[in-house]
Design a protein that fits this description.
Strand content: 5-15%
Helix content: 25-40%
Number of domains: 2
Low-confidence stretches: none
Mean pLDDT: 89
Distance between the termini: 34 Å
Number of helices: 11
Radius of gyration: 19 Å
Shape: globular
Number of strands: 6
Bound molecules: zinc ion
Length: 282
Amino acid sequence: MAMTGLSELRSRHPEWAPWLSVVDVALCEIRNPAWQEGMPSVSQSARSATRASSTSRLSCCDVPPNPTHLQPFLDRLVRAALAARTPSLGALQHARYDARASMSIFMAALQGDDERLDALASQIGTEPAPLRAVASLLPLPWLQAFRREQAGRISQAWSAGYCPCCGSWPALAKICGIERIRYLGCGRCGHCWEAEGLKCPYCGMRDHEQLGMLLPEGRAEQSAIEVCKACEGYVKALRTLGPGEPEDALIADLFSVELDLAATARGYHRPSGVGCRMGWES
Ligand SMILES: [Zn+2]
Ligand SMILES: [Zn+2]
């Protein structure tokens, strides 16, 4: 499904091919069972906390994640980025990092800490923009493995706007079936959770006068942009048959870039960072 999605995207937007070849490396790696090793345990207090708490599973881990396959994966992402031969990604050719630096990049990306990533870019001898781009993919295989590990233990009664599994902001909303059940999909760990409509996932606004909808020309049947005037945030809402497979949110997010462009052109944005910070230093 994911690979079909990427090839279709490539033929629709040939100009994205260089970056999609890097995304491809991450999507293949998501299926590697080796990432399942050494998952951190979730603390006893978190397990006994109310199911409707607003604390993500990831932020309840006893210890920070310590994946053992990071540096070879970062190597593969950097090699794919360099093979893409674009001027911006080309700055990665000067990057020099060891296992420890790979871990620092992973932790900063996991925490959504762009300032830390920029500092790391200068420490390892590259530019901030290409490192941010590649680092955004670095936590995905570990986060997807964490989501598989936590399956069945993730709160069903969840009201916060961020992912109950990993704390990331949703990549998009999926409006499913004739009942129009609304799910929010995480583009990082792949978890999908049912959410109430008419509520901004970022600031919790419920006043319908503050909430609006932008309907893109020609696509109004399948998609819309839900906007919040209070925090100026937006969520892409796509009509789908069902919540779909875990990596679908990541692909659907790429597929709907036109909606991001339409929303940002009107002054709306997606929040940076993550919705639920973790307790560890990055
Ligand atoms: Zn998530
Ligand atoms: Zn809002």
